[in-house]
Design goal:
Largest sheet: 10 strands, mixed
Bound molecules: pyridoxal-5'-phosphate
Radius of gyration: 19 Å
Oligomer: single chain
Number of helices: 8
CATH superfamily of the largest domain: D-amino Acid Aminotransferase, subunit A, domain 2
Low-confidence stretches: none
Distance between the termini: 28 Å
Length: about 280
Amino acid sequence: MSDLFAVNGRIVPAEQASISVLDLGFLRGVGAFETFRTYDGHPHGLAEHLRRIWESAESFGQKPFFDEAAVRRVVREIHQRSGHAELRVNMVVTPGNHGEGVFGTVGEPTWVVIARDVHAPPESSYEQGVTAVTFHAARHLPTLKTTSYLSGRKGLELAAKAGAHEAFYVDDKGYVTEGVTSNVLMRVANRVMTPVADCLPGITKAGIKPIAESLGLTWYECRITRDDVYTADEVWITSAVREVLPIVRVDGKVIADGKVGDWGRKLRAAYRAHCIASARADAGV
Ligand SMILES: Cc1ncc(COP(=O)(O)O)c(C=O)c1O
C-alpha cells in the first residue's frame, strides 16, 4: 500500500511528493506544522489546528493561504484512496522558495500534507503506562509549533538510552515545561496540575480540561518542578495522536504505586468518545 501525500493541494504518491531545494523550510529551518488524527476518517480539532498553524506561521510573516475546506478535501480523498483505517496527518507550511537576502522569498508559499497510518501507541502502553526522563533545555519559541525540534534531540537520545517513551524539558529554573512532543499533566488528589508557561498550548490538553472538570477534578495551571512530578498521584502526557497516555516512571522514580491510575483511564475513555463525536459533528455527519 503506497502512502499518498499532498503538495500545495495536489495529491500524489508519497515517492513523488517533493518540494524545491530552495524552500526556506529546508534552507533556513523556517516552517510551522501541525499533527492531528482522524476518527472514523474525519479530522479531529481541525479548526483549532488551523488556528494554531497560522499563529505559528505569523512568526515568519506568513498569512493564511488555504482553508479548512481545502484540508478536509485532501484528507477525505487520501483517507478513501489510501485504505488506512485512520490517518495521522502532518501538515507543514513554509514561506516557499528563497529569493533575496536571508529570508526573502519568490513565488508561492509551500503547504505539504503527509498522511499516514495513525500508528498510535499499542493498547499495552495505556494499560501498563510508559516511562519518561527529564533533561535540561528550552524550546525555541515554545508557544508556537515551528518545525525546529532540535532542542529536543538530547532529551530523546536520553530517553532512547533509558528505554523511555518521552523526555520532559526542564528549564533553567528547574521547572518541567512539557515533553519533546507532548504536554505534561499530573494529578495530586483531585487537582490536575499542568504548566502553561513556556510550552505549546496543546489542543488535546485544552480538550481534556472541561472533561476533567465535569468528572470532578479541579484544573490548576501552574509551574511544576521535577520533585512535584516524582511525587504526583498520576502523571500523564497528552498529544493529538496519543490522547492521554499514563506515565508510570520518571527518571527511574516510580510514580505512586507504579500502576496506571483510574483517572488516567477515565479521562482517556471520555476524551476519545468526545473526539469521535466532535470529529463527526465537525464533518457534518
Ligand atoms: C512540543 C509539544 N508540546 C505539546 C504537544 C501536544 O500538542 P497537541 O495536544 O496539540 O497535539 C506537542 C504535539 O506534538 C508538541 O510537539
